[in-house]
Write a structure and sequence with these properties.
- By secondary structure, the chain is mainly α.
- The chain has one domain (about 1-49).
- It is built from two helices and no strands.
- The two termini are about 20 Å apart.
- The model has no long low-confidence stretch (mean pLDDT about 75).
């Protein structure tokens, strides 16, 4: 159960970061899309090993 709470906390932080990027950045969404998805992919790879 603690792991689920941790995942929910991480999800909230990611949404907050995404909101910050959208509102306070001069970057277009396609400019931060690849780095964000790259980080998500790395996490997925670590979980599978």
């Amino acid at each position: 159960m603690a792991q689920l709470e941790n995942i929910e906390a991480i999800e909230k932080r990611l949404w907050k970061a995404a909101d910050t990027l959208r509102s306070n950045s001069e970057l277009a969404s396609n400019e931060y899309f690849l780095p964000v998805n790259g980080a998500k992919s790395q996490r997925g790879c670590r979980e599978k090993t």
